Amino acid sequence: MFGLDKTDSLFVFWAFVMQFCLILLFAIRKTNLDFILKYGWIFYLLSIPAVIVSIIMLRGGKGFTFWIGGFIFLVWAIFGYIVEYRFGIKWRDPIVVSILIPYVLLYLGTIMFYWFPLGILGRPLWYFYGVLFALGTYFNITSH
């Protein structure tokens, strides 16, 4: 794949799997909010393989931009799970700023540290991920 080594290929694969899962999550939320409110926590479990991929990147000698995303994802998943499922805080309506800011920053940090390193590996990957990010953002915004 684009002349990448095994760890780079793993990173690319995982970045796109995660983005496709986000698009699916947001698309389902757009049409079936009750389902997501009940089972959306399953998405947070993807932070476990994300951390495994990050550890592989770290042990493979990749720069921090290739491994930090999985760890940010884990923090975001723990935070989101605790807020939304453990305590059931309804922070989106009305907006609770003290939850919104860290939640959005951790979400965007996760996405950016999967997207930006793709530009190092190959511009077509970066552009394609950007299109997927835009699609996911559309579904995310329109599903609230």
Topology readout:
Layout: H1 6-31, H2 33-39, H3 41-44, H4 47-59, H5 64-86, H6 97-121, H7 123-142
Helix pairs in contact: 1-2, 1-4, 1-6, 1-7, 4-5, 5-6, 6-7
What is the makeup of the main sheet? none
Sequence stretches where pLDDT stays below 50 over 5 or more residues:
none
What is the count of helical runs?
A: 7
Mean pLDDT comes to 95
Task: Report Rg.
Answer: 15 Å
Assess the beta-strand content as a share of residues.
under 5%
H/E element string? HHHHHHH
How would you describe this structure to a colleague?
With 144 residues, the chain is mostly helical. The chain has helices at 6-31, 33-39, 41-44, 47-59, 64-86, 97-121, 123-142. α1 (6-31) packs across α6.
Q: Nutshell version of this structure?
A:
By secondary structure, the chain is mostly helical. The chain has helices at residues 6-31, 33-39, 41-44, 47-59, 64-86, 97-121, 123-142. It is 82% helix and 0% strand.
